[in-house]
Design brief:
Layout (H helix, E strand, L loop, with lengths): L6 H26 L5 H34 L5
Helix pairs in contact: 1-2
């Protein structure tokens, strides 16, 4: 198990992995259909997408949290 201080990074890793997998899968399916080689193209696209998405999530998440905090009413 990892120490709790790594939770935000682990969250970003898992979230970026899942989201980039889903989005790259949809984009690949729309572009190639269920053609031969589509799965390999999807995995290649996913690897590249995840490499971009993970650092982006780490940078954008704190900004997003602050924005959300300004847009909602604090709990009593």
């Amino acid at each position: 198990m990892l120490p709790a201080r790594f939770a935000p990074v682990l969250f970003g890793l898992i979230l970026s992995g899942l989201m980039s997998c889903i989005v790259s899968g949809i984009a690949t399916l729309r572009a190639l259909g269920l053609a031969e080689g589509a799965f390999g193209a999807w995995m290649t696209s996913w690897a590249f997408s995840w490499a971009v998405a993970f650092p982006v999530v780490l940078i954008v998440a704190p900004v997003t949290r602050r924005l959300v905090a300004k847009l909602v009413t604090p709990a009593p």
